[in-house]
Amino acid sequence: MYHPVVFFHIMNRKEVITIEKTIQMNSVTQAMRARDLLKAKGIKAKVKRIPSDKGPCSYGIIISDNFEKALEILNKNKINYVGRAVGKGL
Amino acid sequence: MIYLDNGATTFPKPQNVLRACDNAQRYYSANPGRGGHKLAMKASEIVYHSRSNIASFFGLDDPSKVVFTINCTTALNTVIKGIVKPSEHILISSYEHNAVLRPVEKLSKIGISYSVVPIYENDDEKTLNSFRENIRQNTRLVVCTIASNVFGIKLPVERICALCHQYGIITCVDAAQGAGLFDIDLSDSSIDFLCLAGHKGLYGPMGTGAMLVNCNFLPDSLIEGGTGSNSSQYSQPEIIPDKFESGTPNFSGIAGLSAGVDFVRSRGVYNIYQKEIKLVQRLYEQLNDIKGVRLYTEYPEEGGYAPVLSFNLEGYNSEALSEILSSKYNIATRAGLHCAPLAHKSKGTIEFGTVRVVPSVFTTQNDINRLVSSLKNLK
Predict the structure, then answer these.
(1) Which of A20, B142, B169, B212 is the most exposed place for a label (fewest CB within 10 A)?
(2) Is B3 domain-assigned?
(3) Pair (B368, B242) in one structural domain
(4) CA triplet B339, B340, B346: central angle to 5 degrees?
(5) Chain A nearest CA to B260, separation (Å)
(6) B364 touches chain A (CB under 8 A)
(7) How far apart are the CA of A66 and the nearest CA of chain B, in angstroms?
(8) What total of structural domains would you count in chain B?
């Protein structure tokens, strides 16, 4: 498993700056599994198709709050994530 | 029509299954796991929900361990051909379907040997000994069905798998005739791979099946191709379910299969089984009273048999009898060898086959009575 690299996705919507963090997952199935697990633990997560440093065709979960806790939960439940994603094009 | 060919596929399908297929096809039919647009993501959610639903139904804690296939045969081929290597050995039971027999026979051409293990009706200890005696040092895999698709005889699969685990043998169960009828809980099981047909006792549409992975060992992939993930990588992804799900899936079928599982859950696995086995028991009693009817099993006691009954009527070829039942009485049965020559060989019916009757949850006692009176007319 790679170490996760958090990246900040700055999205300008209606002049409000939102900072989101993304964890790149191995597949859409794993992304949805991670989302459901985090949701059950009270952490909001959204599945999205994202570009990555390994090229296109990746899925990730976007998390607004409790990012470190989210990673901890995934590690504890042995849900593998790729970790690194690039913000370009998001 | 009185439909008693539910061993081939259940008919009719429940209303919620039809609705789920229609909705998926009509409103959400983008390619799941491929794009990132809203409709593709909705389709992905539907597939994921189906995966989760089936996982929980069979006691798996991880939805990714549910690999969708187009039928049970594909799931069995994936396990059999993906695990065993030349010079290794496979055990199969004497009630296996051609979905198991033909793959192992093909592998025998490349130096993989197999043994057909005799099954003893209503004698689990003898059956277990039979497996024990056939284990070799190079036995890598055991494949056995939950129940004969011809005679309904149930195999002690959990005990067979536990025995094989003691010898380090990988276990695979063909649940084509058992899923939806018997409680299967993989959370506390020695079954490594469970192969399912979606369109029989789970009441999903045809073109659906699944391979459930209950171990850390993965077979080689049977086919390779696009998975919608890690596309820059030339080699097939090693993660499940992607490793085994190349190509566009049967999206509406998967949605329907999940609805079928909901249907079974709502009726209750045991309730369905009890209803069907009672119909088969009553049929057995009625057929036993008709002179010239030949039955091939002992009385199908609850728990020892799947609701499947085979018979012949003196003076009729099985195919001819099934044809008459269809054309003259509008009753659908299945004649011949049922893709299971080993089972017919075991019971001495390989030359002429049998007529098979399999009820579903929608079959009534009146349907069975109509079959019996038709057979009486033919005598």
Answers:
(1) A20
(2) no
(3) no
(4) 155
(5) 21
(6) no
(7) 24
(8) 2
B333 versus A66: the higher-pLDDT residue is B333
Are residues A27 and B237, on separate chains, in Cβ contact within 8 Å? yes
B248 vs A: CB within 8 A = no
Looking up residue B340, the CATH number of its domain turns out to be 3.90.1150.10
Q: How far apart are CA B80 and CA B36, in angstroms?
A: 35
Q: What domain range is B148 assigned to?
A: 15-266
ipTM associated with this complex: 0.88
Note whether B63 contacts A58, CB cutoff 8 Å: no
Q: What is the pTM of this model?
A: 0.93
- Pairwise CA distance, residues B117 & B123, whole Å: 14
Chain A to chain B Cβ contacts (< 8 Å)? 61
Q: How many Cα atoms are found within 13 Å in the side-chain-facing hemisphere of B102?
A: 11
| Residue ranges for chain A with pLDDT beneath 50 | 1-18, 84-90
Examine the pLDDT at B188 and tell me if it is beyond 70. yes
Is residue B2 domain-resident? no
Whether A56 maps to a domain, the answer reads yes
Residues B98 and B202 in one domain: yes
Measure the CA–CA gap between B282 and A31, rounded to whole angstroms. 50
> How many domains, chain A?
1
Look at residue B1 and tell me if it is in a domain.
no
Tell whether B7 is covered by a domain.
no
**What span, in angstroms and rounded, lies between the C-alpha atoms of B106 and B100?**
10
What number of helices (H) and strands (E) belong to chain B? Answer: 11, 13
Looking up tokens 């379907």 gives B97
Angle between helices B15-27 and B251-267 (to 10 degrees): 150
CA B94 to chain A, closest CA, distance in angstroms equals 38
Please answer yes or no on whether A57 and B229 come within 8 Å at the CB atom.
yes
**How far B46 CA sits from the closest chain A CA (Å)?**
11
**Contact flag B41-A36 (C-beta cutoff 8 Å):** no
Are residues B276 and B224 located together in one domain of the fold?
Answer: no
What is the rounded (10 degree) CA torsion for B272, B326, B14, B195?
60
Query: Encoding tokens for residue B361?
Result: 């949850």
Same-domain pairing of B37 and B123: yes
